[in-house]
Amino acid sequence: MGARLWTSIDLGPVTVPNRVVFSAHLTNYARHGLPTEQHAAYYAERAAGGTGLIITEEHSTHPTDWPYEKLIHGFHRDVIPGYQRITEAVHRHRVPIFAQINHNGGQASSMYSRLPVWAPSPVADPLFREVPKAVTHDEIAEIVHGYAVVAEHCAEGGFDGIELQCSHSSIVRGFLSPVTNHRADNYGGALPNRARLLFEIVAAVRHVIGDRLALGVRICGDELIEGGTTIDDAVAIATMVEAGGQVDYINTSIGVATASLFMIEASMHVPPGYAMFIPSAIRDVIALPVIGVGRFKDPLQAERALADGLCDLVGVVRGQIADAQFAAKSRAGAVDEVRLCLSCNQECVGRMGLNRWLGCIENPRTGREAERQRAEVGFTHRRHRSQRRGSVLIAGAGPAGLQAAIAAHRAGWLPRVLERTEHAGGLVRLAASVPNRAELGDLVRNQLAECRRLGIAIEYGTDVDARRLVAERPDHVIVATGSVPHRPWWVGDRATNVCDITEVLDGSALPTGRVVVIDEIGFHHATSVAELLADRGLEVEIITNAMVVGQDLGITLDMELWWIRANRKGIVQTTDLVPMGFHEEQLTLLHHPTGTETHRTPDWLVLAVPGQPHDGLYHEAKGFGLPVTRVGDCVAPRRAHSAVIEGERAGSQLTHKHLSARLSDRYSDIRA
Length: 672
Description:
Elements: E1 9-11, E2 14-16, E3 20-22, H1 37-48, E4 53-60, E5 72-73, H2 80-91, E6 97-102, E7 118-119, E8 133-134, H3 137-156, E9 161-166, H4 171-176, H5 191-194, H6 196-209, E10 214-220, H7 231-244, E11 249-253, H8 277-283, E12 290-292, H9 299-307, E13 313-315, H10 318-322, H11 326-331, H12 349-353, H13 369-385, E14 391-395, H14 399-410, E15 414-418, H15 426-431, H16 442-454, E16 457-459, H17 466-472, E17 476-479, E18 483-484, E19 498-500, H18 501-505, E20 514-519, H19 524-535, E21 539-544, H20 559-569, E22 572-574, E23 577-583, E24 586-591, E25 596-600, E26 604-608, E27 612-613, H21 616-623, E28 628-630, H22 640-652, H23 661-671
Parallel strand pairs: 3-4, 3-13, 4-5, 4-6, 6-9, 7-8, 9-10, 10-11, 11-12, 12-13, 14-15, 14-17, 15-16, 17-28, 19-26, 20-21, 20-26, 21-22
Antiparallel strand pairs: 1-2, 18-27, 23-24, 24-25
Helix pairs in contact: 1-2, 1-13, 3-6, 14-16, 14-22, 19-20
């Protein structure tokens, strides 16, 4: 790898030690409008992991701005002690940290504030659908003053710089965009007028912070909406910002956080670096440092962006959510050890949409940094008291079993994994075999790489029963045997042209002709297999009892691109139909809103329906009285994050209470 990524760069008065930026993103860690201990621990862990610069999530600048519950209210002085905890924790690792400040404008609702939403014009946002109040000149002055107040709080709180969020969700973006700014005064019309609020805020903030702190502006390069801000507008805005002489760097963004959010936090269906045309175009015309963003999950991708002159720094958010040591491992040349982000959006973006705190599907420690720091002191003490390392045998090398092995090793145990098949990964390996979901396989690849690094033995092609467990004499057993397909009652026993989606993916079933896919899960299961079959030239219809096919794709921002691909591939989507029977190749369906029946006569019926726990080994071991825990789908079939969390919990919470003499007696009794 080249060395550009690890060179320092000056952003005004602040020297950034390398070009990796942990850019601003929501966390939902705030409580009662205040930053928390979890904020400090979360940012500090990324600072310890070697990132060059941290930019916090947004801090609200005015009481009218409260678009979601767990927002930091930067306009209250009460935030300053929390700011100081955050900055002190990060500065211990000699990493600078900037605060992003913002007013979301019309991209909000009055649900929490009980105040009218403010915006340049009374144009309702397509997501919130609330008509905002067009701000008066006095209210504009109040907005500007609010930014200055929060900047002062941030300076007192120890931040090294301020970033003005003027991009994907901001009242400033609302003024800059012709779609949302219909004003006829000197804040509307031509671009210099639409940019007036931005420059008034820049001047007010610079007046407060002086030359002590860096000041950056994050702008949207393309709103991706009809009539919205384009790359030409963004280049013009950046040129004006530089000419003003008060800003130290430009950060970039793409899309609008409501109308085109699926392109801001793009999933694995969007190529890495997809938004780099924006910093590249801006960098061509200004001398200020420019930050580029766009699904960078690999340090080699970031290095290439710098080498190609597309940007001066690279924003890596989800990559560092997945692996806090992203930068340190990369700099040390241990690229293969980086836990690559899947861009699945399930536990980061998806949890935000459900008003939950930010986590990570493959890193169960993300979002629990403060909790773990408190626990580690007691853990270290307990570990030193143990006289020997216990052995734990894990049945199953899917995500749950592998994570249990990793966590058990970390907790001081000697784990050994037995896998019935010739491959690790379980259902995740099958799901990743679909071309447009291949990055999901990084979950298992990352776990296997960690197992290799730790020296954890994995034995393939090894079936396990309770008597073998008795013979092995482990101190504990963790069962992670997954789930098996389940045929619903309405299918019947005689149909031969019926299969589960797993049978399509593993090649044991080869549907032909007209195919109906039944979607009773509401996620990628049905849509991925439907695409696979359509790509083979089959005529595919997805039928669901829900109002939308793959309804949870909206949570992970996959819905819009799924609709585009489905339309292009001719996949029919039919909703509100409940399967009632499949006999003599006729599928009977109930349209539950009206109570009427309809029918299909497919050549094949493919089932995306919940599976059943494959829990026989657990119950058998339990019956023998073995010390056993079960995790993942063999508890209840769910999504991968549940398997990883339960594997982590089971492995890390093992105790040495099973290492007593009574355990030897128990095994003796079992053998007898």
